[in-house]
Design goal:
The protein has 14 helices and twelve strands. By secondary structure, it is an alpha/beta fold. The strands form three sheets. It has an eight-stranded mixed β-sheet with strand order 3-2-1-4-7-11-8-12, with helices on both faces. The chain has a two-stranded antiparallel sheet with strand order 5-6. The chain is globular and about 60 Å long. The protein starts with 11 loop residues before the first helix and ends in an 8-residue tail after the last strand.
Length: 379
């Protein structure tokens, strides 16, 4: 699984238990990213729809969610991966831009990425193997990059992993069917079918995943874009069209409220943290105000919080463009919030299952609850 800011790796066991506690058989992951949460749901036998606006996220979702792992010819996939691994290196866009002008990858790996990506496009485009092989290459490149996990910058000296040779591996595919959708959550939400469980993990601030992971976007699109700056970002990172309402403080609240209202789910989980733009009270009001299918059942909302380590940039500290430390680290921990809404029975069962897992993993938790008929000040 590629490195990703906002990854819910530590929360996945609790989210899987939550889905089981809710008795969910169908689910949607609205901002799926690397599909880590969607994969956990699918491994439990659920039918999952994964939604994201990023092209690289769509490829990962096509591989891990939309592909039935049991129906894949493993010998054919293995042969294709072996064929790609044997392709001679070739200096192309990745080597010129992301290895020589910038330093995301060592040039010895860059020429291999270029050659493998060209071969995937020439030989496998349009085939069922295409997203699987692109996923293999994405994950291989991530294992030898020279960043802290974001592509806003790269390390001044090579990370030890960047000196290892690129290694293609077979993706660990999951049996069962699913759906991958590339699109803006605001445009997609109202058109999704009813599901038992919806997981909503929106961006929390102004930092855009499109520019945070522009290298992956280019590697998947394979469009050799014009670029700018030291980080060699795609020039379309400057377009207003690439800025989501979820990355604008003035619009984020209304955008999330619309998604929460439009998604038709018996149980909804909104994932957030205590450093984001919206307050817990605002999130509670959104979730308490959504409608349940099938009539006038009261909406119950429960909150779980778990102690978490902050993202790696916060641990490194604040530096100026010359690399000189100019600021102090304020804190290294924050709280991850899970706002769970639905019928009282379903929410209490789901929250209880998640809370037990969080306790077993040693993550301090807190909780609160309210209903659409009670005061939010009770939480």
């Amino acid at each position: 699984m590629i490195k990703y800011i906002g990854s819910k790796r530590r929360l996945v066991p609790a989210l899987a238990a939550l889905a089981d506690g809710a008795g969910a058989h169908t689910a949607v992951d609205m901002f799926t990213g690397t599909t880590r949460v969607a994969q956990a749901f699918k491994r439990q036998g659920m039918s999952v729809t994964a939604v994201d606006s990023a092209t690289y996220a769509e490829v990962l979702a096509r591989a891990y969610i939309a592909t039935d792992g049991a129906a894949v010819d493993r010998a054919e996939l293995s042969d294709a991966v072996a064929r790609l691994a044997a392709v001679p290196g070739r200096r192309g866009y990745v080597t010129k831009v992301f290895c020589e002008r910038a330093r995301y990858f060592h040039p010895e790996n860059g020429v291999r990425i270029d050659a493998i990506r060209d071969e995937i496009e020439a030989t496998y485009s349009g085939s069922a193997l295409y997203p699987l092989l692109l996923t293999s290459l994405l994950e291989a490149a991530d294992r030898v990059d020279s960043t802290t996990g974001l592509q806003m910058a790269y390390l001044k000296t090579w990370a030890p992993r960047a000196l290892r040779p690129l290694e293609l591996r077979l993706p660990e595919l999951i049996p069962g069917a699913g759906v991958a959708i590339r699109g803006d959550a605001l445009a997609v939400a109202a058109h999704l079918p009813h599901v038992d469980l919806a997981y909503v993990d929106p961006p929390y601030n102004q930092h855009r995943y499109f520019s945070n992971y522009h290298v992956w976007e280019t590697l998947v699109r394979w469009d050799a874009p014009e670029f700018y700056g030291v980080a060699c970002k795609r020039v379309d990172c400057t377009d207003d069209s690439s800025v989501s309402p979820f990355n604008r403080r003035a619009r984020m609240g209304d955008a999330l409220s619309q998604v929460v209202e439009d998604v038709d789910a018996d149980v909804m989980v909104v994932s957030y943290n205590d450093e984001a733009w919206l307050s817990l009270e605002e999130l509670l009001a959104m979730c308490a105000g959504r409608r349940l299918s099938g009539g006038s059942r009261e909406m119950h909302v429960q909150v779980l919080s778990a102690d978490s380590k902050r993202y790696v940039g916060a641990q490194i500290g604040i530096h100026n463009p010359a690399g000189i430390k100019v600021g102090e680290i304020s804190h290294l921990r924050n709280k991850e919030l899970l706002v769970i809404s639905g019928s009282r029975d379903a929410v209490e069962a789901a929250a209880g299952a998640a809370e037990r897992v969080l306790a077993l993993t040693g993550r301090p938790t807190g909780r609160g609850s309210c209903s659409s008929a009670t005061s939010l000040s009770e939480v």
